[in-house]
Specification:
It is a single chain. The protein is an all-alpha fold and 260 residues long. 84% of the residues lie in helices and 0% in strands. The chain has 9 helices and no strands. Helix 4 packs antiparallel against helix 5. The longest helix has 49 residues.
Length: 260
């Protein structure tokens, strides 16, 4: 939810002042607080039999849900989650209408419970989400692009058999991957950014798979060399004690140097 989207949605439902100075997170929190206050007021008037005042309070709650919370959803960046929230807000609106038409306090309670569940989740993630900026999204995507370039470099080193340099680059890559993981933990990507990230990841994984193939081949080569070297040492240990000069001399005496 953008600052102006949240501010405009809040202004449309006419709740308290201080909107333009609030953060995107605070704007939505104010909407959740406002709708809960309206539902509590509607419940009190419903219990007291004040039909007109009950209707006004429920109308205000409906305005906050429809022209505030639902209108503030960003479907481009929110994707599937925004669609599910829109459906949930539509259901809450039906509950509020039912409560108004039939003096149904249970419908009011259900609407309040659903909104509180969403509001509580938003309060937890909101401070982090409120710090997001286009710069952070760009930085995250740039980091994935750098990781792609690094994987391309590692593959070229693997093809050339430059294992020492490859291991050095790989060590730096592990550090970069950890830093990328920390950065991604604080960034909420929009639809376009998610698609770009998925595209970059697909390329990186394909390169890493080919690098792994080269590394496994090199490992098998080294294992074979080690086995051959071990066999050579075992043969040396088996024959060296018997092949000293005295044994050779006795063999020569017995069979003769000219014997076939």
């Amino acid at each position: 939810m953008t600052v102006m989207r949240g501010a405009n949605a809040y202004a449309r439902v006419g709740v308290e002042s201080g909107v333009m100075s609030a953060s995107p997170h605070q704007l939505i929190v104010m909407l959740f607080d406002g709708v809960q206050a309206a539902i509590r007021t509607a419940r009190l008037h419903m219990q007291a039999g004040n039909v007109a005042e009950k209707g006004k309070a429920i109308s205000k709650a409906l305005d906050i849900v429809n022209m505030g919370l639902s209108a503030a959803l960003d479907h481009e960046r929110g994707g599937e989650l925004a669609g599910r929230l829109e459906q949930l807000y539509a259901y809450v609106s039906r509950l509020l209408l039912r409560a108004n038409l039939h003096d149904d306090e249970r419908s009011l309670d259900e609407a309040a419970a659903l909104l509180e569940e969403i509001g509580s989740a938003w309060r937890e993630i909101g401070p982090r989400a409120g710090k997001l900026s286009m710069g952070e999204w760009s930085q995250l995507i740039d980091s994935y692009e750098q990781l792609l370039l690094q994987s391309q470099s590692m593959l070229e080193l693997a093809r050339r058999g430059d294992w020492t340099t490859l291991l050095q680059v790989r060590s730096c890559g592990l550090i970069d991957a950890e830093r990328l993981q920390r950065l991604e933990a604080g960034v909420l990507l929009g639809r376009q950014e998610r698609l770009r990230k998925a595209e970059l990841l697909e390329q990186i994984l394909a390169l890493d798979a080919e690098i792994r193939t080269h590394l496994l081949a090199r490992r098998d080569e080294l294992v074979l060399l080690m086995r051959n070297s071990r066999r050579q040492r075992e043969l040396d240990r088996a024959y060296r004690p018997a092949m000293d000069s005295s044994i050779v001399y006795r063999i020569d005496d017995r069979f003769g140097k000219g014997s076939p």
